[in-house]
Amino acid sequence: MKIRTEQKDGFVVVTIAGRIDALTSQEIEDHLVGLLDGGAQYIILDLADVPYLSSAGLRVLILLAKHLYGEGQLALCNLQETVEEIISMVGFKNYMLFFSSLAEAEANIFN
C-alpha cells in the first residue's frame, strides 16, 4: 500500500494505492489523523488504485467524515466500481462528497 499527500490551495489530496483492509487501515488512519492534527479541513481521497475496501477501511472513512463534519469536507474520487458499491451499500454517500475525477473534486471541494 502507498499513500501520497499533496497540499493544494486550501485543501489536501491524499492518493492511496492498494487494498484498504485490517492490515493497512491503521496506517491510513494515522496518516489522515496527522493531517487533521495539522489543521487540514478539506481532504480529497483519490482512490483510483484501491481495488478493495473492508469494514476496517469504512471505519476510517466515517471517522474522518465525522471529524470534518460542519468544519470542513471529505471528498472521494475515482472510486472503482466494487469500492463504490460497498460505500453505497452502507449509506456513506450521505456523509461525504463523491466525484468521478480528481479534477471534478478539486473544483467542487468547497461547495
Give the arrangement of secondary structure elements.
Blueprint: E1 2-7, E2 12-17, H1 25-37, E3 42-49, H2 55-68, E4 73-77, H3 81-89, E5 97-99, H4 102-108
Low-confidence stretches: none
CATH architecture: 2-Layer Sandwich
Q: Tally the helices.
A: 4
Rg: 12 Å
Question: Looking across the biggest beta sheet, what order are the strands in?
Answer: 1-2-3-4-5
Average of per-residue pLDDT values: 95
* The top level CATH class name: Alpha Beta
Count of individual domains: 1
CATH superfamily: STAS domain
CATH topology: Transcription Regulator spoIIAA
Query: What is the helical fraction, as a range of percent?
Result: 25-40%
- Distance between the amino and carboxyl termini: 31 Å
Query: Structural class of the secondary elements?
Result: alpha/beta
Tell me about the largest β-sheet.
5 strands, mixed
What percentage of the residues does DSSP assign to strands (E)?
25-35%
Gross morphology is globular
Order of helices and strands: EEHEHEHEH
Structure description:
This protein has 111 residues and is of the alpha/beta class. It has one domain (2-108): 2-Layer Sandwich (Transcription Regulator spoIIAA), CATH 3.30.750.24. It contains four helices and five strands; from the N terminus they run ββαβαβαβα. It has helices at residues 25-37, 55-68, 81-89, 102-108; strands at 2-7, 12-17, 42-49, 73-77, 97-99. A five-stranded mixed β-sheet has the order 1-2-3-4-5. α1 (25-37) links the parallel β2 and β3. α1 runs parallel beside α2. The mean pLDDT is 95.
